[in-house]
Amino acid sequence: MAGDRREACGVVGIVAPGQDAARLALLGLYALQHRGQESAGIATSDGQAAYLHKGMGLVSQVFEESLIRQLRGPLAIGHTRYATTGSSTLRNAQPFLIETLHGPLGLAHNGQLVHASTLRRRLLARGVGLASGSDSELILQILASPPEAWAEEIGTVPPDPDPWVERIRALLRLAPGAYALVLLTREALYAVRDPYGFRPLCLGALDPGYAVASESGALRLIGARYLREIRPGEIVRLDAHGLRCWEESAAPTPAFCVFEYIYFMRPDARREGGTIYGVRLALGRQLAREAPAPADIVVGVPDSATPHAIGYSLESGLPFIEGLIKNRYIGRTFIQPDDAVRRMGVRLKFEPLVEVLRGRRVVLVDDSIVRGHTTAQLVQLLREGGAAEVHVRVASPPIRHPCFMGIDMATYEELIAHRLDVERIRHSIGADSLAYLSLPGLIQAVRAALPGGEGGYCTACFTGRYPIPVEEEATEAVGMVRRHPENIQGVSLR
């Protein structure tokens, strides 16, 4: 449900010789607005100085023409944010920009450092002052340090004529996840994905120049030609002279966040030889095969579950009908301060279409259920609209565990599938029947829709098996140590 999770942040990077890169970065941020609505920012370089503007709110609220004109230069990075670590304040907004011995360094980060507490203590012990609660600042300070400062932890980093490459190599060893980064220096941009490839980052070609972005839709909007994904553990340098890549050590098995496919990425995004829309159709089809329902029509929760519902309709032969109308001018339900207001937000956001619902048995298809509040409200709305029966079908397995890799879902106490079995969830949301997509069915559908896939996915929110160890401090915050001490060490997934 859109009301129960927050999207991952969005990042964009532009190398546009002879142009004002900030304008292209701004367009890219508009295409990535769905990934974060708390703050936005752009940093640029003209080869002599770096410039920065960021603010709280939507991209359209943060930037105006007079501000864009001040962001000079052919190099730019941009960011849209929601908070996984650090409060939602201007101090934590990105990009971050600092001065180093090698000139300015700007950072835009999508993800969440799994070992943030340990890295924070190490930096503070070295006398490094920190100005925010964001784990992104930790990355920035690690990159500002010479690699030999971390020799005790990571050994000797292979030398390179490019000092930033050495520093990025040190980061990849110190912090295995989870991040996709774009870095701004005086003369170049760097694009980096962690060794597991948790978060997306793709590369495109401009004429002249290059662009990187969290999703291919941002490349398309700025007129860039999609080239490929940045690979797990890869470092890509982009400047006026072209592109250079360093293949660093990737994890034995990649662990791309499967929730990007289920919900976060835009349906038009391209990835691994397919599209996200195609993946969601495949998930809906697989769900129909695994969990048919005695119904007359299929209704999807707009807009996130519409492709899943269409896939369910195509496979089951039941007609897909818009039974819920969405008011797109109502704020997202996850930003409401408490459950009571959040539940009211659902009624403000959706309206049942009585003409198509009256007397019919409905399959309500959603992409996931997190807390269950929104689902219960939607089932009730369908009944008020005249539905004779409501059969809920979910295009993902039950979410039983929190995420520590950059998705703000919920704590153990808040996750309804952690507290209740499927039958009790069905009763709680008021549905006539309830069924989830199986985990094998999920992976099968994703791999069938994406023939060029990297081969591994993080499914920890379903299984509790985390690809890399999770810090005890982080697990205590969501009650994991008390209930699931075996999960602290983590397990690599295939």
Give a verbal description of the structure:
With 494 residues, this protein is α+β, with helices and mostly antiparallel strands. The protein has two domains: 10-252, Aminohydrolase, N-terminal nucleophile (Ntn) domain (Glutamine Phosphoribosylpyrophosphate, subunit 1, domain 1); 273-487, Rossmann fold. 32% of the residues lie in helices and 22% in strands. The chain is built from 20 helices and 23 strands. β7 and β8 (189-193) form a beta hairpin. α5 packs across α7 (163-174), α10 (276-290) crosses α11 (306-316) and α10 (276-290) runs antiparallel to α17. The protein is globular and about 70 Å long. Residues 332-337 and 481-494 have low confidence and may be disordered.
Query: What is the CATH first-level class name of the largest domain?
Result: Alpha Beta
Within CATH, the superfamily of the largest domain carries the name: Aminohydrolase, N-terminal nucleophile (Ntn) domain
CATH architecture level-2 label of the largest domain:
4-Layer Sandwich
Total E-strand runs: 23
Instruction: Label the structural class.
Output: alpha+beta
Percent strand equals 15-25%
The percentage helix is: 25-40%
